[in-house]
Amino acid sequence: MLSPDNEANPIAEEIVGSTLIVRFSRPAQRNSLSSEALKALAATIERLKTSPSVHVVIFTGSDNAFASGADIKELAELDPSQARDFSRSGQQLTNDIAALNQVTIAAINGFCMGGGLDFALACDIRIASKSAVFAHPGSKLGIITGWGGTQRLSRLIGKSKAIELFSTGRRFSSDEGLKAGLITQIADPVLEAALVIANTSRFTS
């Protein structure tokens, strides 16, 4: 069963056959990625490195958010050294997700912003609900992501389009994401669609 939704459990996990569902579980904060959330994700990823029974990992969110990026309130309290460590931990996590032996699927159910988008970009497959919204809004705060998004987004949708989105911070829809090549499918309910992909014999055999 999914674990409880609170700050002590910022992510929830559920096993369905050989698929692990990892759910960002801070809906009141639009699933912002606090330092505790990063620690919980790191522990999950570390277990997955030695989990031969798990063949597919699905990352998804709760309520109307996939993940809305770093917790801005928490960031504002960090000194330069702590901010550097936080950035490095997020970058290490996205690198670890990209390097997993399991097939990784981002089932994007709503707001997918900043570091949340970086996590989705690190997955092998991205699908989204019709209502999903994407953005890298850091430019509006005078910052830019340090979690690998600048590299992965440009590889997926092209340098010019990526620069536009990073520099303007504008939001774009799942329709635009599909057209640009950011996602491969629009589906509702998106988690069910991800499970269909996960249950194909090529992944689960």
Can you give a write-up of this model?
The chain has 205 residues and is α/β, with parallel strands linked by helices. It has helices spanning 35-48, 72-76, 80-99, 115-121, 149-157, 159-168, 174-180, 190-198, 201-204; strands at residues 11-16, 19-24, 56-60, 65-67, 103-108, 111-113, 125-128, 133-135, 172-173, 185-186. The strands form two sheets. A six-stranded mixed beta sheet has the order 1-2-3-5-7-10, with helices on both faces. Strands 4-6-8-9 form a four-stranded mixed beta sheet. Strand 2, helix 1 and strand 3 form a beta-alpha-beta unit. Helix 1 (35-48) runs parallel beside helix 3 (80-99).
Which features does this protein show?
alpha/beta, four-stranded mixed β-sheet, 205 residues
- The residue-averaged pLDDT reads 89
Distance between the termini: 24 Å
DSSP helical segment count: 9
**Portion in beta strands:** 15-25%
User: Structural class of the secondary elements?
Assistant: alpha/beta
Listing every helix as H and every strand as E from the N terminus to the C terminus, the arrangement reads: EEHEEHHEEHEEHHEHEHH
Helix content: 40-55%
Number of strands: 10
Largest β-sheet summary: 6 strands, mixed
> In angstroms, what is the radius of gyration?
16 Å
Strand arrangement, major sheet: 1-2-3-5-7-10
